[in-house]
Amino acid sequence: MAPPLLSFENLGVIQGAGYLFRHLDINIQPRDRLALIGRNGAGKTTLLKLLAGVIEPDEGRRSIQPGLKLVLLEQAPSFEGCETLADYALAGADAPPRYQVEAIADQLGVDLSRSAQSASGGEQRRAAIARALAMEPDLLLMDEPTNHLDLAAIEFLEGWLNRFRGAFIVISHDRTFLTRLTRQCLWLDRGQVRRAEIGFGGFEAWMEKIQAEEVRAAEKLDAKLKLEEHWLIRGVTARRKRNQGRLTKLYEMRAERKSMTGPEGTAKLAIDTNDVRTKIVIEAKHISKSFGDREIIKDFSLRVRRGDRIGIVGANGAGKTTLLKLLMGEIEPDQGSIKRAENLEAVVIDQQRAALLPDKTLRDIIAHGGDWIEIGDQKKHVVGYLKDFLFDPALLDAKVSTLSGGERSRLLMAREFARRSNLLILDEPTNDLDLETIDLLQEVISNYSGTVLLVSHDRDFLDNVATTTLGMDGSGVIDVVAGGYSDWQKQRADRLALSQSRASAKNLEKGDATATTAAVQKPTRFKLSYKDQRDYDLLPEQIEKMEAEIASHEAALADPELYTRDPAQFSALTDKVAALRDKKEDAEMRWLELAEQVEASQ
């Protein structure tokens, strides 16, 4: 095995009166693609900064390979002293070449000439990513890189990291991003770190096995208080086991919505408005909206029923916020009409925590200092209600100022969901949340009896909560799809394929001589060799087989007892997975090179 790029021995960090974590041993190998996972407050960002050498540990020794180029992409980099975003991206003696930074910035959709101080958080994030990628690191450390990125920018980043030949560690709440990119997991939990030679796709099954073993061990020792978060582990595990029932309900709602959807692009719902269960909440008829010469929305109609979960997706600037404002009545359409139910009571959750006063306690925020809270027509004790939102009862009288960012987000959700409402507005709700809080939010939305309108770039979240997706591509036409993000993507791909097929058929019918001549002449200008053509045709199937074999081995490695039961088999499987990943990556690079040749010849 190659020597590690970076390692820590006996790492320890003191926080407050005790240790945040202690006695950690960490090794980062060449080509590692690690997901760093843990609850908010576990110390993920601190660990990333320790690995980067930005902060010093209280205990332990850090070793780094000589000449290693290490780059840290922070969650909130400082732009102090920079007039423009370009000043930040090109600062320092180790600044990357301007042309590389500008090329990546263009792909990410950010203008580097923008003032650094007036730029949005998303623009600052894009500038920081452009700098980090252009530096061509050997080891890249990333803290929530997809926050505030639109779908196009996220997909660009995924593509770049797929081609990246170095190692990386990433903290992210984006499950799709983690599943597509990572090969190993570091789980930071209650002061310990565990490493698994599996990608994020196998993480939750591995974690649940470990937690179940811990619970059984605690019960055997008759030490109910030995695990400080015993109740939490049970609650989280039970919540995941209920996911199947929640998804079944979601699929049924999607099927019902699909049966009511008319021609592509327009939802025509034949609904009895006298039925309280299917009452129309919002009805938009042939609405259009323009700003200057740009038409944001063209002739769009939609009926939103009580109980719908409507996801709005699209690139930044496509008009998602404009559509949301039109539906809510904050702005009026240029053409068409929008009717809303008279009794709408909306709650907005946009993760702005300014309303949570730091000197207030959790009891103050939730129950105005009392012991009971009314949720709809029910009365519930504040301790039981906060436990539903993953709070330890011991925190009931803790001040908001002592909570982590994720805990504050959960507290905000708990407060807002306690209010009486029948319409929930969510604007990028998953930003800065940990994975367990996102699980909780999905469950709360599933159990919400009202209607939900949400704007999000989190593909997995949309797939798990949306009954209908409104897809915006910036042209003004809005797709209405029964289902989540993946359903919208599939419809777009099917429509593109159908359009190309119709265009080809039309050309043949018309006897388009120019098109026919061009099609005949293409092979004479360029032709792959026999070996290259064979690789181009067969590699996709071979890559798919390797992915299946890797997944099979990773499933075996997910067994937490394998290492102690059969260390030789564990080692053999680990080496086999590493070899298969290298082989798969070489095959992918080979196919991409051939695909570029084919594309360039067209």
Summarize the SSE layout with pairings.
Elements: E1 6-15, E2 18-28, E3 33-37, H1 44-52, E4 59-64, E5 70-73, H2 85-89, H3 98-108, H4 121-134, E6 139-143, H5 151-163, E7 167-171, H6 175-181, E8 184-189, E9 192-196, H7 203-220, H8 230-241, H9 243-260, E10 280-291, E11 294-305, E12 309-314, H10 320-328, E13 335-340, E14 346-349, H11 362-367, E15 372-375, E16 378-381, H12 382-388, H13 405-418, E17 423-427, H14 435-447, E18 451-455, H15 459-465, E19 468-472, E20 478-482, H16 485-510, H17 513-525, H18 530-557, H19 562-565, H20 567-601
Parallel strand pairs: 3-7, 3-8, 5-6, 6-7, 12-18, 12-19, 14-17, 17-18
Antiparallel strand pairs: 1-2, 1-4, 8-9, 10-11, 10-13, 15-16, 19-20
Catalytic activity: ATP + H2O = ADP + phosphate + H(+)
Protein name: ABC transporter related protein
Organism: Zymomonas mobilis subsp. pomaceae (strain ATCC 29192 / DSM 22645 / JCM 10191 / CCUG 17912 / NBRC 13757 / NCIMB 11200 / NRRL B-4491 / Barker I)
